[in-house]
Amino acid sequence: MEPASAGATDDAPFSPPGVVRAPPVQGKGASMGAVAGRNQASGESGGRGAAAAAAEPAAGRERIDVVGHLNRERARIFPGLGAVDYTIDQRQIAATPQGQNAAFNQILLRVPGVVLDSYGEVHVRGEHGGLAYRVNGVLLPEGLNGFGQELDTRIIQSVDLLTGTLPAQFGFRTAGVVDVNTKTGESLKHNQVSLYGGSYDSVVPSVQLGGRHGKLDYFTTLSFTRNNIGIENPSDTFRPVHDVTMQEKAFSYLSCHVDDVSRVTLLTSTSYARFQIPNSFKTFDMRSPDYTTLYDVAGVDPHDPAMNWAGLDDSQTEQNDYAVLSYQRSTDRMNVQVSPYFRYGRIDYAPDRDRDLIYQGVSEHEVNDFTTGGVQFDLSYAIAPQHTMRVGALGQYTSERLDTDTLAFPADANGRQISDVPVRLIDNTENWAIEAGVYLQDEYRIARDLTFNYGLRYDRFASSFGREGQLSPRANMVWKPGRIATLHIGYARYFAPPSPQYVYPSTLARFAGTTNAAANMIDDATRVERSHYVDGGILLRITPDFQISLDAYAKWAHDLTDLGQFGRAVILAPFSYRRGRVHGAEFGSSWRHGPWSVFGNFSYVKTAARDINSAQYQFDAAELAYIRTHAIQLDHQGEFTATAGASWSTKRDMAYVDFVYGYGLRSGFANLEKQPEYDVFNIGYQHSFTRVRFGHDVTIRADIVNLLDERYQLRNGSGVGIYQAQYGQRRGAYFSVVSEF
Length: 741
Prior knowledge:
The protein is mainly beta and 741 residues long. It is 8% helix and 50% strand. It has seven helices and 33 strands.
């Protein structure tokens, strides 16, 4: 929750010419904008209005002007330039269920074209993953594919989701770019301490601190989360069994203004999360259709009540740490930013030895960690009144390691257990990857209402399992023939490397003849996905308060990358299809007038893929054969999705109603079936007390998530690359108190 945001004035983000982007979006639902021309920028990074700035002393205005100038110039380095850009501001975040305590995926879910999946995943335009995260314009190195969400909503001042035909400066992860502008000491009016909690024994204390001392601007946030629904419930019961999570997160932003045209910033983040793996229903009644075969373990009675399924004690921890150092310098015609960065991550899955052997025939301790280091360089230069050239480079090295300590039973050719004494198998593997890219592009303002942005990008991927490269052209045209309509059309060639995770044939051979044997021995390495992408759309500003948008897109891919969970440990592994197609359309509408905000979004996506051509050992032979000759729909396809809502905000009060509709993801053999559709309603209210004895404002808030207690299943445990069943969260009530000091 943002105490000051209920009645805040939202200034339009700075937009260089030709950017296809959303202005401040009404309510929570972002809708695509296409603004070709310069919007007036806010005078400060925190988004306070000009009147507030004018009331400050002259020294304060000068300081704010420097901050605002550098932020605007940074936006010139990293503009969208024809990509579809959905902007989410503080007012929207406050009116999202649970506000600043919401998981980051819930913020993105209110954008057209975003579909919810299990483990907190979201899919943008029919892609599984493929999102790049940038914090203040600097690429955040990609983490391992687990389920913890390290990005804390509390750090966000505003966030943009760029999709469609991205300009040449964006490479590697091209399904979308999540560009986060963090809070700063300047934007945080007062320090805050918050206590949030409610259903499922949820408790979340947090603190936000920030300020400005001379040339140094600082902001930091600390939070701790505990609840009893860390991962989606695998059954339709109200409370899951064995699902406690505890998470600690810390983030800091430091900025030092060297002079009026340059600054140095440092971002650091650390997160550590512990998850219990929730237990699925098992029964000991062999007449039940839900009966699961039990394995015999020497010295253990599988029918002993102490071995009941509810006692399974598998757990997983996730750790992520990163640091980004940036130097920015901006002059009249040139803007440059150089950013070295470092990241470390670790996933540690701990099994329950005896119960895992009984129910799965395998007990495996897995530790998957990685280290990434790199540097990013970007420069923009106005070479002529109609031309702005941009050039840049990025290079990074990633080291990945997977250590496994496994107990499994010897098995016959049909996979049947032939001994009740498990054998111990230790396997440690390493991978490495180098990703490098350079780009050159020209923003050509052909006329006042017409901008053409074109460029070339060359990417290179080298790893322990392959080497590839590609030259990729990009082009976007934005035309604004009048005040009402803005049109855009674009083409992009994409080169998207897989994550550096590869299981070698020697590992498959080691597990042969056990209950942990692979389905087959075919083990081709995942290749780089290459695709052609086209996008076109229109924004209609019917009135200054009301706008509607429509966008359509299509993608044709070779070696289409997908992700799957293959085992109880929640570590998603890449695989690919030889050919893939994705097409769809998005509609957005938004209206904001005075205290009222209303939005409605709808999207459609259709996918098709044929012939799994990597990591085939994870799939049954019958399914591989079917997919080799039939185009199937991808498991993460949510063919239709819709979000809508309304909110009312004043200086002291805010109330909202929110709606999410899901058509259902794919399931069954070769994804031939579909999960049921669902609709979820949420409501909330917030009030600020401005006259308090100590400190500043005190804000209280209440949210009811899934108001009608809709029972809906995201996954049923079937589908290509799907392991576990999951249900959406049942009704929950949450409350928070925020005090400013």
